[in-house]
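FAQ: What does the model actually see?

It sees only this:
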Amino acid sequence: MASDNGESTGDVFLPLLAGSVAAGLGYLIGKRHSTAWTEFQKTYEEQLAHLKYNKVTKPYAFFRDLPQSEDFYVEGVLAYLFGLPNASIPMIMRCLELGLKDKYKRTEGKDPPARLTDLIDWSEVILGRRKELAHGFRILRNMIHGDTAAREQDASETIRHVTTILNLLYPFGTLTHSRQCGRCGFQDTYQHHAGELYLGNDIGLECTGCRAMSTVTILFQISGGRENG
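And it is asked to produce this:
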C-alpha cells in the first residue's frame, strides 16, 4: 500500500503514537482519595491490560482512509476502558459499518446495503470463511440482534473482532512517525511494524540527538500534529 509522499509500500503516514491520553486520565483519577475514584482507576488498568494481552493492533490504515472514523474508535475504546460497555459497543460497531460501506462501494462500484448484517455477510465472503474470522462474525451478529445489557467482555470482544476485520480490509505493514525530543528538541523519525502497534503496548524510543530514552504507549492518536515531549 503506497503512502501519499512516496515512501515504500505498506507505510502508513499518520501523526500517531499518543503518549498516554487515556492513561493520564486514569492516573489523575487515581490521585483522588475517594474509594470510587480508586475503583475507576482499577477498572481502567484492568481493561487496558486485557486489550494488551489480546494484542489488538490499532487500525491505522483505516484511520488514514476514513479520518472521521478515529473519533468513534477512540470513544469506543475509552468507554470500554472506563467500564461503560453499553457506550463502547455502538461506537465500535459504527466504525465497522463505516469501513464496510467504504470497502463495498470501492469493490462493487455501487451504493452499499443499508443493513449492517448484510454488509457483514458480504465481508465474510470477501475475507474468506476462515475459522478464526467465523467466530468473530458470529459475535458481531449477536451484538446487532442482542437486547440485553452488554458486559465488559462483550465490549472487549467487539473491539477485538471489529479491529481484526478492519485491519484485514485496510492492511498495513509498517508505520512511520516523527517525534520531537523533549530534552534537546531533536526531531527523529521512527518506523514500527504493525505487530508492535497494539493497544496498551509500551514502546521505548531513543533520541539520536542526545540519546535520551522515552516511552510511548499505543493508545490514541493526537490528530493533526506530532506528539511532542
